[in-house]
Amino acid sequence: MRMASRIAVIGLALVGFVACGPRVDAAGRQPNIVIIYTDDVGYGDLSCYGATRVKTPHLDALAAAGLRFTDAHATAATCTPSRYSLLTGEYAFRNPRAQILAGDAPALIQPGKETIAATLQRAGYKTAVVGKWHLGLGNGNVDWNKDVKPGPLEIGFDYSYLMPATNDRVPCVYLDGHRVDNLSPDDEPIVVSYHKKVGDLPTGHSHPHLLRYAADGQHSGTIINRISRIGYMDGGESAWWTDETMIDVWVEKSHAFIEANKDRPFFLFFSLHNIHAPLAPHERFVKQSEIGLRGGSIIEMDWAAGQIVAKLDELGLRENTIVIFSSDNGPVVTDGYQDQVPADLKGHRPNGPFRGGKYLPYEGGTRLPLIVSWPGRVKPGVSDALMSQVDLFASLAKAGGATVPPGAAVDSKDMLGALLGDTKQGRTVIIEQAPKVLSIRKGHWKYIPAGKRQGWANNKHSHPDDPTYVEPVSEEAQLYDLSKDPGEVDNVIAKHPKVAAEMKALLEKETR
Ligand code: NG6
Ligand code: CA
Question: Which of 55, 276, 412, 434 gives 361 a disulfide partner, CB atoms 3.0 to 4.6 angstroms apart?
């Protein structure tokens, strides 16, 4: 064979390998996988998604070098259900316990239930979760002074360093594996209750003058770091977190995990507390914000994402690492604290062009940023494929050369082709879960069934000028044509009764 044609043949073989061969690089390695998962970040909160009042240069760079999705969804408009779906590949509405959990709730994903971490672990990955958990721990009656289990280590993670629930819930301590980190023998024992006050620590109810900002009744439990939380705790003072330095802790733990595993495939679930209330970003980020604390938390989150990418670059791992950025549910402007956020927005629209946000059945509740970067593999661009986080399980398993065991991840479809930009064809149908209502998308149609209460009540304290606020207008069924009306203002159900009937039947079939 002549040299030129031999090169052509090798070239063609390489193209074929990249397009449809195993998901390994030229050296035969499985790609590392990093999911950067944020809390309550909306579609409009990143500058690469149109924000102008706040800049997210690190995520913009990730998007410019990768794929940016415009119709990608969390499975739910709240945290625990979305996280459950992401990790198990199962729609959360199938599990009645998969609702926003208290900070002392038992483990929602019990040992034996398959997770994406376990699947990748069996395929040779080292696996870690760093950051927010909010999927329950233990089996009820957790003693926070002893081993707290089962938790992530029992369902496929080799390493975990966690905030047990949310930043607005006790216990306000870090959990390193099974143990509360930094606990001192001199500390009073940690006690946690969601039913009654325990110990003598001041609460938002009894000592409102100690607070940096006022809170609603629900968020007026124990005060830690001048912020009152949901629930009550006592003891463990050496172990209390400081909200302002939490980001540095997460980044440091993630860096250490990446460094320790740089020579083998790893999966890191980097689960940020940003930008969930209470907002307490570090002063160095607040200083950069034009739109107050919420902007500061976005800038902090962007910095943290940049730190992970920089570590991959530094170690020469970037080419062979899939980095995925997304959020667990849509944005909320007032979520328990009087932190000046509504007044500080200055025209910023956390939900971009969409209606509603967190807790709501509208697109703002689940349509979120999704960025996928894999420099060795993904061609930069923008994709309008309809995507759901429930499919990350099957897709990433495939990318990592792992096998999904039979009966696991029942709702997860292999969407790797769409995720990597080989095709613009995503799902045809997704379910969007808001508290008390399941809606359905098929192509450009969106159907919200009639219902008593469609989940609006949770943002009733919101400011009427809040762009994510939705009047609890209608208990009627709603049909929207998103191709003409992405903002879901024009209910066209009367004009399209046949489409509505089909969507209703499909919703019932898919959620049975
Ligand atoms: C709600 C809390 C809200 C927030 C949410 C969880 C009240 C009135 N509201 O119950 O403040 O903590 O739970 O947010 O308590 S999530 O992003 O983790 O789903
Ligand atoms: Ca959330």
Answer: 434
